[in-house]
User: Which sequence fits this backbone?
C-alpha cells in the first residue's frame, strides 16, 4: 500500500509539472487573475481575505469582511464562502499571493484529477487505456483552460470523482471504514462548491445501475447520506441559493459542450460504457467487470444532468469540466467492451487499440492553442500604486472582467489595504456630468478606462465621454495595451475640484454594494 501511494504521488508530481508547463506556455503567469473569467478574481480576492483574516489573528469576521470589501469589492460575502476559499487562503499563506503561486493550486488539482481518473480506469479497462485516459484528460482544451483559472470547477470535478470512487470502494468492501471514507470525501465535496451536493445522488443511482439495491438498505450508507443531506441543506440556506424549477436548457448546453470537446466517436464509446456498466451489473456474470468499479462514476452523468437542470452552474463551458473524467473513463471501458464483442482474448492488443483510439481522438485538442492573455489591468494597477495619491481611490470603468481584474491586481499588490477600488458600475452615473460629480464625491484620485476594438462597454463609454467633456480634470498617466493588441487600458489622474476627505471610507460605505452573481 505504501509503495502504491508513493507511486501515485510521484505520478501526480510529474503531471503537475506538465500542467505548470502548459500554464507557462499559455501566458497564464503574465495575465491578470480574472482576465478571462471575473469569478477568478472574486475567488482570489476572497482567498486573500481569508489569509489576511488568519494573519490578523481571526478578528470579528463580519467587521473584517465589511472593511475588506470596502477596499476590494470583489471579495465575496461571508455567506458565499466555501471550503475552497479556506483551502486557497491557506495555500496563499503557505506560499505567496503571487499569480504563479495562486495558479499552482489549480495545476495540482488538475493533476490529481488526471491521475485519479487514470488510476481508477486501470481496474476496469487495463493499464494501457488508463495511461491514455490520463493523457487525453491532460490534453483536453477545456481542462487546460480550467487549470489556468483559480475557480470552483476543478475542485468540484476532483472531489465529486473521488466521492464516486469512494462509494465504489464501499460497494466492494461494505466496511465501516469504507463508509466513513465516502462520508468524509462527500462532505468535502458539499463544502467545496454549491454543486457538490450532487454526491447525494451517487449512492441510489450507483446502486440502481449496479443492481446493488441492498446497499441502500444499510445503515452504513443511510446515516452518511442523511448527514450529507443536512450539510447540503445548511450550506444552501446559508448562501440563500436554493435551486429553481427543473429545465432542459442546462443539460442540453452541457451536452453540446461535450460534443464539441470530444467528438462523436469518444462520446459513443462513453454511452456504450454506461450501457455495459448497467448490463454487467444486472447480469451478474462472474467474468464481467465488477459494477462497483464504474457504476458510481457512470452515476455522475445523470446526477450532474439533474443538477444543471436545476440551475446549478454559471451557464458557461467550464461547467462541463466536472464530466470530463467520467466521460473519458467510460469511453475507455466502452471501447474495450465493444472490441471484445468482435475479438476474444488478445487483451494487450485490445488495450493498445483502445489507447490508440483515445490518443487519436485527443490529438485535435492537443493541437488547439489555449491562451490566457493580459488585458492591461496589471500594468495599470502598478502605475496607480506607484503614485503617492491621497486618498488612494481608483475608479475602474470596463466590463466585468476588466473591473474584476484591476480589483484583484491591486488587492494582490496592496497588502496593507491602503487603496480603495470602486467599480464604475456601482456609481449612479449615466452622463458625464453625473460621473464627474460621483468622482468628486468619493475623492477619486485615478480613473482606469478599458477600451476595446470590439466596442466600448457602457461604463467605459460614459467614462471616455467624461474625459472628453472635461479635459482639464483628467491627465493621462499611461496607456497599457492588451496582449492581443485589440484594445488598451488608459489610466488618468483626476484633479479635484475641492479638497478631498482624508478618509473616503464613510462616503464609499454609502455606495450600494454590487450584486454578486
Assistant:
Amino acid at each position: 500500500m505504501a509503495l502504491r501511494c508513493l507511486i501515485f504521488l510521484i505520478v501526480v508530481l510529474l503531471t503537475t509539472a506538465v500542467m505548470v508547463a502548459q500554464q507557462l506556455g499559455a501566458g497564464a503567469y503574465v495575465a491578470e487573475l480574472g482576465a478571462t473569467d471575473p469569478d477568478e478574481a472574486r475567488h482570489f480576492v476572497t482567498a486573500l481575505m481569508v489569509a489576511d483574516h488568519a494573519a490578523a489573528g481571526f478578528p470579528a469576521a463580519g467587521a473584517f469582511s465589511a472593511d475588506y470589501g470596502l477596499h476590494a469589492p470583489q471579495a465575496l460575502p461571508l455567506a458565499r464562502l466555501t471550503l475552497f476559499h479556506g483551502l486557497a487562503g491557506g495555500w496563499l499563506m503557505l506560499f505567496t499571493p503571487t499569480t504563479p503561486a495562486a495558479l499552482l493550486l489549480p495545476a495540482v488539482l488538475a493533476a490529481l484529477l488526471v491521475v485519479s481518473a487514470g488510476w481508477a480506469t486501470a481496474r476496469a479497462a487495463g493499464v494501457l487505456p488508463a495511461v491514455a485516459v490520463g493523457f487525453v484528460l491532460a490534453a483536453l482544451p477545456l481542462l487546460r483552460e480550467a487549470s489556468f483559472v483559480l475557480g470552483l470547477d476543478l475542485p468540484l470535478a476532483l472531489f465529486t470523482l473521488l466521492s464516486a470512487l469512494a462509494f465504489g470502494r464501499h460497494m466492494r468492501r461494505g466496511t465501516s471504514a469504507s463508509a466513513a471514507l465516502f462520508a468524509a470525501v462527500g462532505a468535502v465535496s458539499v463544502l467545496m462548491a454549491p454543486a457538490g451536493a450532487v454526491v447525494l445522488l451517487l449512492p441510489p443511482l450507483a446502486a440502481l445501475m449496479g443492481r446493488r439495491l441492498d446497499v441502500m438498505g444499510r445503515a452504513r450508507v443511510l446515516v452518511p447520506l442523511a448527514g450529507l443531506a443536512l450539510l447540503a441543506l445548511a450550506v444552501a440556506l446559508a448562501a440563500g441559493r436554493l435551486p429553481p424549477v427543473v429545465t432542459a436548457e442546462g443539460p442540453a448546453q452541457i451536452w453540446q459542450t461535450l460534443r464539441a470537446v470530444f467528438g462523436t466517436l469518444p462520446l459513443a464509446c462513453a454511452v456504450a460504457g454506461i450501457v455495459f456498466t448497467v448490463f454487467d451489473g444486472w447480469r451478474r456474470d462472474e467474468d464481467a467487470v465488477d459494477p462497483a468499479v464504474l457504476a458510481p462514476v457512470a452515476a455522475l452523468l445523470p446526477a450532474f444532468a439533474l443538477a444543471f437542470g436545476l440551475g446549478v452552474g454559471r451557464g458557461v463551458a467550464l461547467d462541463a469540466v466536472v464530466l470530463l473524467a467520467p466521460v473519458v473513463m467510460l469511453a475507455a471501458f466502452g471501447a474495450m467492451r465493444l472490441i471484445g464483442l468482435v475479438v476474444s482474448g488478445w487483451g494487450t492488443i485490445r488495450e493498445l487499440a483502445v489507447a490508440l483510439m483515445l490518443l487519436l481522438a485527443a490529438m485535435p485538442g492537443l493541437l488547439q492553442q489555449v491562451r490566457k492573455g493580459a488585458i492591461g489591468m496589471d500594468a495599470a494597477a502598478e502605475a496607480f500604486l506607484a503614485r503617492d495619491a491621497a486618498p488612494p481611490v481608483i475608479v475602474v470603468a470596463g466590463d466585468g472582467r476588466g473591473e474584476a481584474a484591476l480589483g484583484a491586481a491591486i488587492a494582490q499588490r496592496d497588502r496593507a489595504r491602503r487603496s480603495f477600488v470602486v467599480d464604475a458600475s456601482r456609481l449612479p452615473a449615466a452622463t458625464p456630468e453625473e460621473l464627474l460629480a460621483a468622482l468628486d464625491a468619493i475623492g477619486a484620485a485615478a480613473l482606469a478606462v478599458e477600451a476595446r476594438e470590439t466596442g466600448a462597454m457602457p461604463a467605459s463609454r460614459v467614462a471616455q465621454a467624461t474625459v472628453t467633456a472635461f479635459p482639464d480634470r483628467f491627465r493621462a498617466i499611461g496607456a497599457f495595451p492588451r496582449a492581443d493588441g485589440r484594445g488598451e487600458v488608459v489610466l488618468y489622474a483626476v484633479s479635484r475640484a475641492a479638497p478631498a476627505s482624508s478618509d473616503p471610507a464613510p462616503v464609499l460605505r454609502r455606495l450600494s454594494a454590487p450584486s454578486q452573481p
